[in-house]
Structure to design on (226 residues):
């Protein structure tokens, strides 16, 4: 089952509520990230769940395995439907994250960030002293995520076919309508093309949140992606 996730990159609850009002009675998947989470706290997630929204909690955990496990136990109790961690934390950290999540009673999908799109090959080689290519590390991190028992990864829609072959779900940002502006995104796909490539979830921010009519933009996205 494919889903459109709206990236709620808002500074606080007031901005988020104003946006949600434009969606009429729709209760879509919302991506709640660090910015608004650190402002409003776990209560926001509980409240949105009570109102009937599905939540992708995008906090990208990355620490020693035990700390991540304990943190995940707390996050799991909030009721989120998808939660993510950094694959760079290693297989044991990912396994512990999953254990923490299950111990909380949550059945959320646990997904991994492979390489951030802000990391270039130059940064990888010259700052982080990793000699493999971005592509090789993305593939290896995805295999590690699979081996740790995770459900999927965040990746570009263009990488969805490889991720599918590894046996993972793909959650893909970088989505634009064929007639929309790319803004700062580089490797982009339309909702329809993301579907063809095998994305399971698309994460769409500005194409919906900054649209003249967010409701129409959301419905268009759902239509093109289903
Ligand atoms: O506005 P836009 O559709 O570009 O927003 C995409 C969302 O996905 C943002 O919240 C952005 O931080 C997130 N994201 C991304 N690329 C990644 C990972 C996350 O654009 N590789």
């Amino acid at each position: 089952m494919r889903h459109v996730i709206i990236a709620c990159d808002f500074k606080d609850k007031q901005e988020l509520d104003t946006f949600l009002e434009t969606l009429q009675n729709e209760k879509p998947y919302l991506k709640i990230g660090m910015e608004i989470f650190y402002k409003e706290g776990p209560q926001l997630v509980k409240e949105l769940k009570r109102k009937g929204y599905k939540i992708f909690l995008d906090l990208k955990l990355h620490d020693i395995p035990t700390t991540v496990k304990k943190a995940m136990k707390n996050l799991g109790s909030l009721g989120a439907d998808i939660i993510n961690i950094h694959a760079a934390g290693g297989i044991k950290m990912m396994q512990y994250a999953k254990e923490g999540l299950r111990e909380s009673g949550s059945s959320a999908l646990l997904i991994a960030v492979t390489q951030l799109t802000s990391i270039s090959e130059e940064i990888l080689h010259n700052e982080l002293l990793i000699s493999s290519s971005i592509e090789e590390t993305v593939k290896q991190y995805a295999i590690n995520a699979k081996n740790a028992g995770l459900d999927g990864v965040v990746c570009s829609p263009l990488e969805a076919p490889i991720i599918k072959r590894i046996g993972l779900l793909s959650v893909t940002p970088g989505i634009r309508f064929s007639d929309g502006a790319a803004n700062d995104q580089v490797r982009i796909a339309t909702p329809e093309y993301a579907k063809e490539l095998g994305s399971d979830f698309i994460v769409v921010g500005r194409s919906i949140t900054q649209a003249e009519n967010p409701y129409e933009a959301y419905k268009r996205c759902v239509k093109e992606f289903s």
Observations:
- The first helix runs from residue 13 to 21.
